Amino acid sequence: MLKFILRRILETIPVLLCVAAMTFFMCRLAPGGPFDEDKQVTVEVRELLNKQFNLDQPLHKQFIQYITHLPTLQSFKYPNRTVGEIISQKFPVSAKLGFFAMCIALGLGILFGVIASLRPNTYVDYIPSSLAMIGICLPTFVMGPLLMLVFSLQLGWFPATGWGGFSGDQFFASDMVLPSVTLGFFYAAYISRLTRGGMLDILTQDYIRTAKAKGASGLRVILKHSLRGGLLPVISFMGPAVAGLIAGSFVIETIFNIPGLGQDFVKSAFNRDYTLVLGVVMFYATLIIFLNLIVDILQVTLNPKLKFD
Amino acid sequence: MTNRIIACGALGLLAGALVGCGPGSKPVEQGTLNKVLNITVGTEPEDIDPHVVTGVPEHHIITALTEGLVAEDPVDLHPVPGTAETWEVSDDGRVYTFHLRENAKWTNGDPVTANDFVQSFKRILTPALASKYSYMLFVMKGAEDYSTGKLKDFAQVGAKAIDERTLEITLNSPTPYFLSLLNHYTWYPVHIATVEKHGGLTRRGSGWTKPENFVSNGAFKLKSWRLGRKIVVEKNPDYWDAETTKLNEIHFYPIELETTQENAFRAGQLHNIYNLHIDKIATYRKEHPDELRIKPHLASYFYRFNITRKPCDDVRVRKALAMALDRGSITKNVTKGEQMPALFYTPPGVAGYTARARIEENVGKARQLLAEAGYPDGKGFPSLELLYNTTEGHRIIAEAIQQMWKKNLNINITLQNQEWKVYLDRQREMDYQICRAGWTGDYPDPNTFLDMWTSWSQQNQTGWARDDYDGLIRKAAATQDPDARLELFQQAEEILMDELPILPIYIYTRVYALNPAVKNWHANVLDHHPWKHVDLEVKAAQ
Predict the structure, then answer these.
(1) Is ipTM beyond 0.90?
(2) Which of A43, B189, B193, B286 has the most CB atoms around its CB within 10 Å?
């Protein structure tokens, strides 16, 4: 397994370099620059700004400087912050939102999926399955405002925007509920569909019938015998899902005004904030590669048919 | 068995739904009690260094923290004593002598001296800092030359510290709006020693603007700044006029999305909605008239013509296009925010100036002009593209105008939207035929609207240049008599409206909402609200 992990890490390096080069050069090819504003600056000032931010250097030199000094580079848009500072301040927020959403997604998704699979094609199946269908069909930008309207504006249970309570530092605050539920519900819908499918496959297997014949209790059959196999599709889905969840959702972060990194992912490109774009993209690329590695390891551990090679 | 699992699931769901229930006291109610104002000014400020930033959100935060030589009256914004207690103007209107007050202090205890101002002016004009807004100081003698590097010796620039507390500023020409200009943050002082300590005077984005380092001289001081969350400023007890300051704290939240601002306002988290969405105006008018505010704004919405390209190189075409619009219908049915249809460019009533020139809305004449230009009934009219930045509000206006031109002139134009930076780039490179634009005045004087159409202005971007226009603007800058000066602007605007390198559409309004508990918040065309006067009153809060 160690050899497998080492090999995967080595493979990562060229992938990251490619991602960096593509991001860097695509940004530079896009028209407009970080200093284009409503009120145009004079040619002299523009040249001085370019000099100050090293934009007057040849591109390849800039690229090398960017990839070697990325975390300590200044953001173009927020000059008193470095790329590293911005990511380290904002990523924990996105990660926490993702974590809560994932708990909701897995909890609800697996529960609904299992329930639905136990009595296929009866109302016990139809109700959670239709709920899941609604969850998949309702985009987060509809779901979010809808929940906000009901639970925040009408009932007044939760704040409409914000993160971390009034002080902004609480581990769990009521303003985290609505965004987590909005994001979590969307993934819960997928997970319940996947769980139901996976479980239906497993529940008809011979070894399940054997376990039942042996006199194992229903709960034991589900938890011990079925789930391990039934959740395999969920596990493969979790790799990209976790990445998507903790990468922060631009939509959710914008609707609920959450100070996460998902907003910067999109806005830094619009702002032509060359350093921050590269920083955020590289950060996410690394994260996704790492998560995929974990999923691969998990899959092999759960499925004896697979091997590390 | 399975029933038990189903029951467990239902219980789990119920428990989940109940977590976090129970209403807490809302930030706005608490804030009003404790004199803490919770507001949003739109986007996250890029920085709070007055010599580096250019934006409006930055303005709102910097004016809470820093004070210039003069301050603004909360009602009509006329200049009132700020850091300078008194001042005199020379007979020729070119030399201002400011006497700084003795008890003006920086938040670290240092006195605010005349030299602080001189060094601050020097900093923003230093070429290496590359300040985008340094041109605001160009009315000062030698400032422009120093900023372009032509002048090396700052002693030649018209800013002198006569002694600790006396500052003399010499201008190029008498500038009637000079005192108002001093309220622009580019003229604000910074604590030079602090800036120097954190990476030097000419490094933008050095750490001096972080809360732990920031030193300022205003009614409030910086308490905390958490990126994407909020900026908190608290009352500065050592401020010379601390008695006037009503609020204990102001929390500035960066909320960009209009609907999110509104939700936060409705949920009792904010005292204001910075921009109210046009779809909500009718609802607020009916249900919350005490919260809705619609006020004239010192800003003009217009289109630029690229006069170096066909067909807009022909003044008859430009006139025909300008005459064939029904601006009243656009403001009534499309923008819906009580904007004023603009038949001229400069917003009316600025420093006693309302343009005499008028565009005539006349479809018959427009058709005739188009025919004279060689396109009778729109026949043979070349392809024409209207460029705007991708925003719903601009799209619906462009579509209305497209329809009006089709109906009135029988010409077809295409609409093209581009992402903000691409749009700016194409405008700068003059790679457009017609493009959307807007201009917000920097100070309350017609000059801020009219000097941008001179041949030397970076903001022109139309390819249009006229010697007589340039001459009038130059002459106005050198004229001391106020009436004669405004008359020169009248003549300039007449040329502008006769030549029409631009197509004025409407004068902006600010449409926002404010909690009735907020007091001493006066509407004015610049949308400035001197923070030390703003108050919160418990009685009016629900």
Answers:
(1) no
(2) B189
